[in-house]
């Protein structure tokens, strides 16, 4: 903010020092996974001055952890139409067909461009891209790299390209809040940077366009495949900025996460669905294949169905986990095709070549997020969202496996095109007014994770959600109350901001899960066990109000995504 600021902007914001430095850009991208870096490269190519801010190092986000691959109709006989059909089935009636159509038709080109950028995918003897299967896909259409290290290769290629192009990047930078101009339009972000010399402490990047590509919010649960940085910062920022958030109740629990003990918390090793795609079986402790007869695709049913079946089996047998059996692959195949998973299992004392792998479902992917139109525009002028932070309408109630790297590639390009096509001028942010959110103590992170795991895990009910809501409200009120200094964070800091963001997204998720009184996709209400199309073939949209309350409304699937006004309208 400058001395020439002439107005104020209202809204909720985090408790933080005033910015001590600022820089200007045409666009600021928040996040450095596949969505963020693709958007950054495309905006730069379009001649826009682009700044990438990322919470840790450039390659520390979720993308690097993706194993299975990228789904696209690249194989002989496969078509975007078949990919569309599988995506719509997995999405359980809540996908936006036009968004899915954009995904599947623009997908193959996006993968080819990624290859041109330098990503190396596994190929067969003829040099064609090797394709595997995952849950919900009726064809082999998942391109992979390094066997089971697709995300790492995608991240490597994009990070190297970004570094070679000398893009302006700011690492170790936690985004705090959105800046606005007098008209309420996006004017940049505030952020906190740790130890970057000229950018140190709280500062501002002023820009008329902001792209949230902050990834997921898996850390809202105790056990997740997401890295520790996945604390829903982009969705929390968008909530505070008054943006609409949609489909947050649809949290995908990955069926096969390595079981390291009931008390194991934080990021847990993933055992890719591609292992089942290559023929692994799910078995119980007696060796029985319990997916047979439950679904025509057995172990390759859509992910929500497999996660539910595993949970049911665990409940029925009083077991803490089930098993994935791929001993029949043999050592050579394990070493060649799944080296990352083999190493992870062995590092925990399990040898998949000779024994079944203990697995359980854990939080994996947020199908919902900041509501966007087909160009990635949110309901706040100038604010865009992309990748897991966004709700573009492609996932509906349950994301189809390996559609998310593709979503990042396709919609990042659309966003860059939209920003480049819209005239804009450098904004003049105004001094933010409005309510300052009190910060939670860093330790609250673990309380939130336990509350959410107990109340809003794979199986939910009115009672479990009400209990979770009450505990979260107590945390919020506690933070708001004048309590002794020793129970409050001494100064705002990354852990306190992250805990406060987690509470923000947890409250919104619970509110949506309470309201949706049906079972659909990855939202399983044991007190409403059936899908209820008559009442619930609709999206739930959440907004955070200035008094901290949440409001919810529903929209028709045909209303989604809306065609939002051009957000960078001439200033
Ligand atoms: C996996 O490899 O099973 C994860 C892929 C995905 O979540 O899309």
- Percent in helix: 25-40%
Bound heterogens, unique: succinic acid
**Tally the helices: what do you get?**
14
Let me know the average pLDDT.
92
Question: How can the largest sheet be summarized?
Answer: 5 strands, parallel
The class by helix and strand makeup works out as alpha/beta
Strand content: 15-25%
Question: What key attributes describe this structure?
Answer:
five-stranded mixed sheet, disordered C terminus, Methane Monooxygenase Hydroxylase, Chain G, domain 1, disordered N terminus, Flavocytochrome C3, Chain A, domain 1, binds succinic acid, alpha/beta, globular
Description:
With 571 residues, the protein is α/β, with parallel strands linked by helices. Among the domains are: 256-363, Alpha-Beta Complex (Flavocytochrome C3, Chain A, domain 1); 438-535, Fumarate reductase/succinate dehydrogenase flavoprotein-like, C-terminal domain (Methane Monooxygenase Hydroxylase, Chain G, domain 1, Up-down Bundle), CATH 1.20.58.100. It is 32% helix and 20% strand. It is built from 14 helices and 27 strands. The strands form 8 sheets. Strands 9-5-4-13-22 form a 5-stranded parallel β-sheet, with helices on one face. The chain has a 5-stranded mixed β-sheet with strand order 23-21-15-26-27. A 4-stranded mixed β-sheet has the order 3-12-11-10. α1 (34-45) packs parallel to α10 (404-421), α11 (444-456) runs antiparallel to α12 (462-480) and α11 (444-456) packs parallel to α13. The longest helix has 22 residues, at 494-515. It is globular and about 65 Å long. The two termini are 18 Å apart. Residues 1-7 and 565-571 have low confidence and may be disordered. Bound molecules: succinic acid.
